[in-house]
Amino acid sequence: EKMIETENSDPMRTAWTDYRQTLTSYVLEGIESYYRRAHLARQGKLRDQAFTLEADVPLEAKPVVAIWGAGRCNDLDLEMLAPYVRFVLIDRTMEDIQAARARYGLSEAQCVCVDLRFWEIYEEEERFFETLLANGDDLHLSEYLRQVMESVAEQQPTFAGYEKAFDFSVVCGLASQLNARFAGQLYGKDLRRLPRTAAMMKEMNVQAAGRLMDAIMVTTSGAVFAANEIYAALPAREERLAEYAQIWTEEWEQLLTAKTETQILPEDVEGITCQVAGSREFELHLMQAQKAGKLVFRHRSGCVWPFSEEKYYFMDVLTAYFI
What we know:
The protein is α/β, with parallel strands linked by helices. Helices cover about 45% and strands about 20% of the residues. The protein has ten helices and seven strands. It has a seven-stranded mixed β-sheet, sandwiched between helices. Helix 3 (about 80) links the parallel strand 1 (about 65-70) and strand 2. Helix 5 runs antiparallel to helix 6 (about 140-155) and helix 8 (about 195-220) crosses helix 10. The longest helix has 27 residues, at about 15-45. It is globular and about 65 Å long. The N and C termini lie far apart (about 40 Å).
């Protein structure tokens, strides 16, 4: 129950104001940059400073932006994006995304709410794990997680009607949450006494991140904008997180500016590695897709997310075009 309650981010909406502005501006500028590149290619030009997105076009002509794990959209300002795009809000909790649509006064034509069930875990399964934790040993706990994972993996989503239906996908802080209701129940436990359970939890994160990546690639034609947690710290260490973010931004700017066609990008820079479960696995899938020639990174930078009164995150914010 406590885990589910913390998924409601409304109490942090005011504290997230600057972060929301930063993230939304990043997405809007990224969409505009994408179309500017296409415009320049058609015109045979190197630059066109006058090019901007147009708001005065029919709704059906506007690009479709899918927001994965949208929740109540407290980390994105839909009002800022609404003049230029149509939305598809994706979440397992329909009440949350419908509330977000109502908050911004969007019509059903402007904003579709859907649960694509790409990693479908039932609430009853999560609650039963809580019951098992009371007296279960490592073998039984790990076996239960394995059964849940295999059951989810057997459910192959079809995405009927959504193949390449989205021009852009936005995924912010989602990968770390796909198995969070299980992982959260292990907080405070001595995982040295639960090695099988910890190992199975890691494997679930690998599988969930892979399923998320596959879902995005099947449904999205243009680009993905992602914000992934890299490192968490107490709010008192915000300045240190900001330093990490600045280093990350500068290093990736140099790497992407100098990149050649055959160059393999590193998985970390300046010794900064992702330490957040779920997010780490999703970042690896992004890097693997890049190495396989399925996408190309256009931009990466760092910022700080004041997630809660107890915890701030250093975030990797990126843009990748699908090939």
